[in-house]
Every structure is written in structure tokens, then in C-alpha cells.
Amino acid sequence: GKGHASCVGVIYTMAPLYALIMTPVVIAVIFLTDYIALGGFATAIAITAYLFCTGQWIAGIFSLVVLAIIVLKHIENLKRIKNGTEKKVSTLYKKKKPTDEQKTTDEPKE
After folding, report:
1. Is 70 exceeded by the pLDDT of residue 108?
2. What are the Cα distances from residue 72, in Å, to 29, 33, 46, 69?
3. DSSP 15
4. What is the DSSP string of 39-107?
5. How many angstroms separate the CA atoms of 23 and 21, rounded?
6. Which of 28, 77, 79, 89 is most buried, judged by most C-beta within 10 A?
7. Pick from 34, 25, 33, 5: which is nearest to 92 by CA?
8. 31-74 pLDDT, tens per residue?
């Protein structure tokens, strides 16, 4: 959502090379799992790992706190993913089939 978009903007501003490398990875996670939420988690986990691996301890700790907040704010999403009830990316772009009622009301009247 908006929070993820804000974080991505900050990442592109502060670490553009990392952002360019991470973007295809996030897109791959979204397409492989069919869940946008997991792309957001992948971003948060990857940036946290990147910061610690590059010795940016203070930023890494801050990122870890943000990651914890992200997980806490998305507990319901995680439960729905586990239960298989979370909306998938593929369902957002499928054309809805008309119901029988819609079919009968859309037919030309004599």
C-alpha cells in the first residue's frame, strides 16, 4: 500500500543501485507467489539484510524495527495467505463472467 510505496521511494533515493537490483527480485516474488503482500515483505527483508551485510548497523536496526512493524500490521494478510483466502494478483486482472441474472437482463427485449 501507501507505506510500501513510501519505503520504495526512500530506497530509490538513498540506495538507487540496490533499488535497481532489488526491483526485478520483488517483481519475481510477486509473480511466483501471486501475492503482492509477499513482494512487500521481500523488499523489507532484503533491505534489512543488505544493511546488516554492508555494516550499516544503525540503519539495519532501524530497518529491523520497521520490518517488525510491517509484519505486525500485516498479520491478517499473513493469516489469509496461510488459509488461501488472500486475493491473488491474477484474480485482480481476470475478467468477471456475468451471472445468469445479468445475462437475462442484458438480453434485448422484444
Report:
1. no
2. 21, 21, 18, 5
3. -
4. HHHHHHHHHHHHHHHTT-HHHHHHHHHHHHHHHHHTHHHHHHHHHT-SPPHHHHSSPPPPPHHHHHHHS
5. 6
6. 77
7. 34
8. 999 998 888 888 888 888 988 999 999 988 998 998 898 889 88
Record the cell numbers describing residue 106, joined without a space: 442484458
The owner of cell 521481500 is 42
Q: Which three cell numbers stand for residue 20?
A: 535497481
pLDDT at 109: 54
Nearest to 65 by CA among 73, 75, 76, 55: 73
Structure confidence at residue 11 (pLDDT): 79
Q: What percent of the chain has pLDDT over 70?
A: 84
Least confident stretch, 16-30, 33-47, 56-70, 88-102: 88-102
- The x, y and z cell numbers of residue 86, run together, are 488472500
Q: Which three cell numbers stand for residue 57?
A: 548497523
